[in-house]
Please model this.
Amino acid sequence: MTPPVAAHPDAPRTVLLTGAAGLVGGFLRASLPKYGYALRLFDRLPVAGEPAACTGDLLDPEALAAAVAGVDAVVHLAAIPTEAAFPDILAANIDGTYRLYEAVRAAGVRRVVLASSNHAVGFGERPADGGLLRIDTPHRPDTYYGLSKCFAEDLAALYADKHGIETVSLRIGSCFPEPSTVRMLSTWLSPADCGRLVHAALGAAVAGHQAVYGISANTRGWWDLEPGRRLGYHPRDDAEEFAPKLLAAHGEPAADDPEFRYVGGAFTTF
Ligand code: 15L
Model:
């Protein structure tokens, strides 16, 4: 068994992971226990190989209340993870996240780590001077999906200001086993760095609501990672090792290609 690595001394210990059956949920089920967290798993679908996982819907108040009872923190991944019809996004991502925060408030949980997305700022443009995209760039959603992540971040800010619930919103790039497009040479978040990021976000001192970009230490990254570093996120992976293969297959994108120009890449074209 892998020994625990660098746990924060005052980090939460019992953590509810919503969306535990999804891809990122699977990465975190593998990595977070190595940092010493005890995970409680929650998903609409059964979680493969995890008979103790709670199967329930975010829109079911009783299931949600039972899931949050007694945990120190919540990592909230549960959502439709891509563009979809507005009524579906409204139910799963917008109402679902509202219900989650209400349950968190009622249960007295202090910390949420929220899976936001780069698509909250998807129409943000690559700085022309070659600089980094700042974390305080205004919301510019590229889809209803991105809009739901803007809502989630703003909801987190409301519950911080009104109820003292601390949230770190992670504007995740492309969290996959490896990058599969040229854009992902910039936006990739490796599974191991995803674990590092969530661990940092669970344990760091934050006042209220704070957003950070979630990508690896990519040579071609153009989103400012400094806010994450200040929380203790020190990524170790770099998508550049995949560059020769991807560039040979696809070539360099043109400067006016949405994949190159906008944070959200192809999502701006749907
Ligand atoms: C996301 O937010 C999606 O959940 C994921 O499926 C990818 O499309 C990713 O963004 C991305 O921008 O690559």
Observations:
- The beta strands are 14-18, 38-43, 54-55, 73-76, 111-117, 166-172, 174-175, 188-189, 209-214.
